[in-house]
TrEMBL record, chains A, B:
InterPro entries: NUDIX_hydrolase-like_dom_sf, NUDIX_hydrolase_dom, WH-like_DNA-bd_sf, WH_DNA-bd_sf, WHD_NrtR. It holds the Pfam family WHD_NrtR. PROSITE patterns: NUDIX. This is ADP-ribose pyrophosphatase YjhB, NUDIX family. Residues 9-148 form the Nudix hydrolase domain. It comes from the Bacteria. It comes from Mucilaginibacter pineti.
Length: 233, 233
DNA sequence: GCAAAAGTGTTAAATTTACACCCATGA
DNA sequence: TCATGGGTGTAAATTTAACACTTTTGC
């Protein structure tokens, strides 16, 4: 017995929803599609799964191709399998969402793809059912970040508490009291205070912190309340 | 342009992790696989995705084939895509997990598959990477049930609070104070008290409740604390 | 010296936990 | 009558929410 001979085989693709944070706004990295159909339109980075790679590998490969980054936060999101989602030929797409430090993103690598960052809230029209994919990612990042410390993946190694707060406020589209926020965050034991300050944001400067990686990995799966009233998920 | 001509096509399957509750234990429905490879071994219900059906439809079809049930809680879980997970031929599998009222499950339908319920905690050895799939489902049901009222899907239309509590205790493998539990559950506004009692569990009998469907759908996405200390997820 | 952002502490309110007794009934 | 599971309330502890002033420093 060598094959499941009577079964139909399908195209399988991965699509990556790549999110970054520029200090103000949560952004998504899109490319200009360079082949038909929908050539020239904005699209997620993605491509077909190759015969000798797993789907996780395919997602990582695509992410690296576009951003030059490896080892970043990448999580399988959902698989889209409507029969007509690709008008050319039936293609099932496994979506992944990636959180990257936007500063590490290397422009030159992406020149080939004409990639651009867009505010997640003002994403241009996307091809096929990709709008739906982005919507799923938006929900998932909120859902997960309300309970797990994933948003640190969007920041550089050194970051300040005001930066972190802006990030949370941007993801949840809400204002958070800074006194309560810093208490809450510091109480997790996830942060290590550094000696130097970031003077970019203010004259006085804000202390840098970095993640306590030990605690970070240990507590990653634990449920933490980072958001006051996480009802609007 | 008619096809993505240079790409390789793959087999795509769905596998269903079907969970039920018999009043004591959380159980999983497995079948005896009736074709090679691994013929005669325990397996999840599943099958190949057909060309004219979506993957959601494929999952629903499989679920109906085995249980006779339609319209039950069915949620896409994860897609497994390692290259060698099926030794015969590369097959990517999209897993779904289903929660059903075990009483509605129709035995005669499943005779063809030699289906059997097993305690989720004592699942027999499964084929391929299905052990991993079941593990993912176990995690997901806890994760989701800690915050969303999905466990009602496992109960009949009429159920008692002690039954509900046993279910939660069984899923989370923990003892819950019955006073606090009933307060918590009743506070959600999800339950309607009925006039009659279930006399099966005790001499005194316990009042039946049913879901307030209006509130159930409205609050389904909201985050609720059903479990005292949801740390062990 | 002043504008602009950083940093910090207390009090009230709400939520969560712990805990024990009476009730109804079939055997 | 008694054994079994059903049903309920209160007080303490914890957690969360609300809120305002001082510090630093570049201009």
């Amino acid at each position: 017995m060598h094959k499941y001979s009577k079964q139909t085989r399908l195209l399988l693709a991965v699509d990556c929803i790549i999110l970054g944070f520029d200090g103000e706004t949560l952004k998504i990295l899109l490319i200009k599609r360079d082949f038909q159909p929908e050539k020239g339109n904005w699209s997620l980075m993605g491509g077909f799964v190759q015969p000798e790679e797993s789907i996780d590998q395919a997602a990582n490969r695509n992410l690296k191709q576009l951003t030059g980054l490896q080892g970043v936060y990448l999580e399988q999101l959902h698989t889209f399998g409507a029969t007509k989602r690709d008008p050319i030929e039936r293609t099932v797409s496994v979506t992944y969402f990636a959180l990257i430090d936007i500063n590490k993103y290397q422009t030159q690598l992406s020149q080939d793809y004409h990639a651009e960052w867009f505010p997640l809230k003002r994403t241009p029209k996307l091809i096929f059912d990709q709008q739906e994919m982005v919507e799923a990612a938006r929900k998932q990042i909120r859902y997960k970040a309300a309970m797990h410390p994933i948003l640190f993946e969007l920041l550089p190694t050194k970051f300040t508490i005001p930066q972190l707060q802006t990030l949370y406020e941007s993801v949840f589209n809400t204002a958070i009291d800074k006194r309560n926020f810093s208490k809450r965050v510091l109480a997790t034991g996830l942060l290590i205070k550094l000696a130097d300050k970031d003077k970019a944001g203010s004259k006085r400067g804000a202390f840098y912190y970095q993640l306590n990686m030990q605690n970070y990995y240990a507590k990653f799966q634990a449920i933490m309340n980072f958001i006051p009233n996480p009802d609007t998920l």
